[in-house]
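ARCHIVE CARD
CATEGORY: sequence design from structure
SOURCE FIELD: tokenized fold
FIELD CONTENT:
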């Protein structure tokens, strides 16, 4: 399976409801069925409209969203704020349920884990553990109410997952993390597999439209890397398809992002070829730069 990720206004790649509706219709036209979004991306209304316009039955679509708030940003906001965030996403998609809802970030501390101000839950113990706990309780309750069919997390490192395990409740069904040859935390992958948590990787191409503004960006974009281009020539596929296929070989569910028809088709055409063990090892061996696009989630307290 492949997904269709959306962002709004980051690095010059602006998505709005019109763009999202058109891209969603194209995606469904070519057989795509799994959508990744978030309230923060400002694309949920367009996705919902595109789904309805396409005539695709809701039962055939898998929608993932994430807990975000206007007041606090992408951090876990606490129980009541999470319930309100989920309801807002349900309203924007115009659906009675969301297939998978994630805590977007375990707390502030990286370039992508934006925070506008600390929520009330932070002041209980003056740490982010209580906010994660309250936010997860809200997800569990909405899961029991069948407003959410599955619940998970995003950008959680092992220490955050171990903390969740200590609570004794539901464990996340999914952990969505940045994953590509420039950044692959295999210890997190192994921990998730041992605990039956599906790993969903975003930015499979290393997010080339974002890394250009990083102060210590890699010298070569992944899609221009010699190893990637050489393999693409061998298998007669594009560098983007090679990177996505590598991720699938690693047992990670991919989240490519596209708005143009040719790229949507390209993203949906990654299951008709295989990489050899030598090709996989070549991509595994690409040196990782000192940082990824969003920063190390292990730095989040």
């Amino acid at each position: 399976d492949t997904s269709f990720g959306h962002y709004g206004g980051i690095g010059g790649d602006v998505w709005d409801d019109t763009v999202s509706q058109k891209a969603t219709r194209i995606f469904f036209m070519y057989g795509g069925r799994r959508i990744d979004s978030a309230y923060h991306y400002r694309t949920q209304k367009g996705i919902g409209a595109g789904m309805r316009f396409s005539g695709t039955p809701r039962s055939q679509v898998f929608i993932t969203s994430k807990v975000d708030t206007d007041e606090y940003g992408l951090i876990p906001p606490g129980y009541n704020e999470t319930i309100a965030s989920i309801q807002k996403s349900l309203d924007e998609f115009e659906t009675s349920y969301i297939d998978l809802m994630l805590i977007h970030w375990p707390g502030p501390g990286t370039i992508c884990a934006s925070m506008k101000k600390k929520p009330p839950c932070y002041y209980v113990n003056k740490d982010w553990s209580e906010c994660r706990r309250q936010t997860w309780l809200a997800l569990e309750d909405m899961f029991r109410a069948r407003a959410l069919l599955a619940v998970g997390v995003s950008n959680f490192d092992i220490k955050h997952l171990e903390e969740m395990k200590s609570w004794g409740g539901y464990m996340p069904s999914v952990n969505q993390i940045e994953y590509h040859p420039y950044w692959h935390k295999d210890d997190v992958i192994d921990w998730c597999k041992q605990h039956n948590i599906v790993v969903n990787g975003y930015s499979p191409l290393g997010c080339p439209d974002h890394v250009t503004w990083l102060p210590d960006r890699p010298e070569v974009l992944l899609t221009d890397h010699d190893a990637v281009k050489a393999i693409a020539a061998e298998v007669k596929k594009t560098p983007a398809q090679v990177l996505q296929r590598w991720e699938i070989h690693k047992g990670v569910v991919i989240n490519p992002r596209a708005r143009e028809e040719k790229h949507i088709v390209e993203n949906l055409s990654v299951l008709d070829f295989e990489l050899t063990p030598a090709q996989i090892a070549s991509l595994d061996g690409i040196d990782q730069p000192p940082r990824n696009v969003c920063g190390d989630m292990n730095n989040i307290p």
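CARD ANNOTATION: Confidence is low (pLDDT under 50) at residues 1-14. Residues 122 and 128 are 6 Å apart (CA to CA).
SHELF: design records, drawer C
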